[in-house]
């Protein structure tokens, strides 16, 4: 069961996270400057305070690293000209900062990076496309055979179609 921290303990933990100094954190939390060093060290050994500090440190670290959604949002902003780059340009007298929209090359690079994450070569879509192509070939072959045979029996047509379907299934395996 997790114990709730007192206001003083929470302030101590937050100040310790900022400074890394237990004595200073204890003083800022309201402990006596005379006992701040020992109280600060003692607080760092308390499991509840240590757990709070560890959790906050992990949270801070996780916010430093961009997640996939944030990266994709950035690439999309580049692609849509929603970001600008500040480029220093030197003149005869001074350095001027110019705001520049992403170049065509930057947009292509951003597009490629987005497409790496959303490839069009999805295995299921690829299989659907192969099946569609095979069905089209079968239909074309069927029409060609029907033209050649004219009024002859449908049995020959069915026999030929079975052969084509089997050959198509073998090529997909």
Automatic annotation (TrEMBL):
Keywords, sorted A to Z:
Plasmid, Viral genome packaging, Viral release from host cell
| Entry keyword Transit peptide | no
A Pfam family cross-referenced in the UniProt record is Terminase_2
Q: Which domain of life is it from?
A: Bacteria
Q: Name one GO biological process term.
A: chromosome organization
Q: Entry's PANTHER family?
A: TERMINASE SMALL SUBUNIT (PTHR41328:SF2), TERMINASE SMALL SUBUNIT-RELATED (PTHR41328)
Q: What is this protein called?
A: Terminase small subunit
């Amino acid at each position: 069961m997790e114990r709730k921290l007192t206001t003083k303990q929470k302030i101590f933990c937050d100040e310790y996270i900022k400074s890394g100094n237990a004595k200073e954190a204890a003083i800022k939390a309201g402990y006596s400057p005379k006992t701040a060093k020992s109280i600060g060290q003692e607080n760092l050994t308390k499991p509840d305070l240590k757990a709070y500090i560890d959790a906050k440190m992990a949270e801070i670290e996780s916010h430093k690293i961009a997640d996939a959604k944030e990266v994709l949002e950035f690439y999309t902003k580049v692609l849509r000209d929603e970001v600008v780059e500040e480029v220093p340009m030197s003149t005869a007298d001074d350095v001027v900062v110019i705001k520049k929209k992403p170049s065509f090359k930057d947009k292509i690079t951003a597009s490629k990076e987005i497409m790496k994450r959303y490839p069009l070569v999805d295995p299921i879509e690829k299989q659907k496309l192969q099946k569609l192509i095979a069905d089209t070939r079968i239909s074309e072959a069927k029409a060609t055979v029907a033209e050649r045979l004219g009024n002859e029996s449908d049995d020959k047509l069915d026999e030929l179609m079975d052969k084509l379907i089997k050959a198509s299934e073998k090529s997909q395996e």
